[in-house]
Amino acid sequence: LQHSSQGHANNQTLDAMARVKRLSIEGNIAVGKSTFARLLSNAGRNWEVTPEPVSKWQNVEEATSQIRQPASSPQQTAGNLLQMMYQDPKRWSYTFQTFSCMSRMRTQLQPPPARLLQAGDVAVQVYERSIYSDRYIFAQNMFELGSINSTEWAVYQDWHSFLVEQFGPKVQLEGIIYLRASPQTCMERMSGRGREEEQGIQLEYLEALHKQHDNWLINKSTKVHFDHLKNIPVLVLDGSLEFESDSEMQAKFITEVTNFLK
Ligand code: DGT
Q: Which atom of ligand 1 is nearest to the CA of 89?
């Protein structure tokens, strides 16, 4: 009985997901994904945007407190994994990618909210980054830079492929929005926002990430391992434009995304 009622819930979830289009917003560090995501979430009641869980990576202690034994001394307290990864990438990049990918997996597995399903026409669920950029942008880049070794990279790819295949349609996307700007522009925006953990990031790192995005989403030269991802529609938007305070530009972007969804 327990088994069949669970099956029913799963079918309901899949049915709900079939009525929702799922997109991810991809792009370099500080290109403006969060600003763009906010713009989309205000665009209509049938759009739902899930932000990237950066704060969880900055406070692993709090993010995991519900599901583990409490630390018995302050020395055992879990730390700021984002900071640890930037300070000692060789030691912490693999750990970071396991945690970032798990948090992205959780996000993508959340069923669409009821509000979205009642909204009529096309309901759209938008994620900031995805389990796919976790692998084909960041983990791959860390491997190419030598911050993840060959063994770690093999283990990462093994569990990543296994989970994506096991979850199937529940973690698939129907399209990707690539917010694209030069690494220099991203560098300026990153310096402007002054996030503590990012102080040591060099332009070369942003250039490497830019290349990874272009290879995956424009040149299509990155080898992807999932059929649904091979021919996925990609909308490239000019992220160098300052759209935050330009309502005309915002309207233009929303129209582009709406047309992309048709
Ligand atoms: P935005 O809205 O485009 O300005 O971007 P943010 O700040 O909302 O998000 P983003 O992309 O800059 O990511 C936050 C920080 O986390 C940034 O320092 C890059 C880093 N990060 C994000 N995902 C990954 C990942 O999968 N691996 C590694 N190593 N770093 C990541």
A: 29
Q: How many CB atoms lie within 10 A of CB 128?
A: 21
* Pairing relationship of beta strands 123-128 and 20-26 according to DSSP bridges: parallel
State ipTM: 0.94
What's the pTM value of the predicted model, to 2 decimals? 0.89
Rounded CA separation 101/93 (Å): 12
End-to-end CA distance of the chain: 41
> Which residue from 108, 106, 82, 107 is spatially nearest to 95, judged by alpha carbons?
82
Instruction: Tell me how far apart the alpha carbons of residues 259 and 175 are, in angstroms, rounded to a whole number.
Output: 12
Ligand 1 centroid distance, CA of 194 (Å) = 13
Average pLDDT over residues 200-213: 97
User: How many residues are there in the chain?
Assistant: 262
Q: Is 197 a catalytic residue?
A: no
Cα 236 to Cα 239: distance, rounded to the nearest angstrom: 9
Q: Is the pLDDT of residue 59 over 50?
A: yes
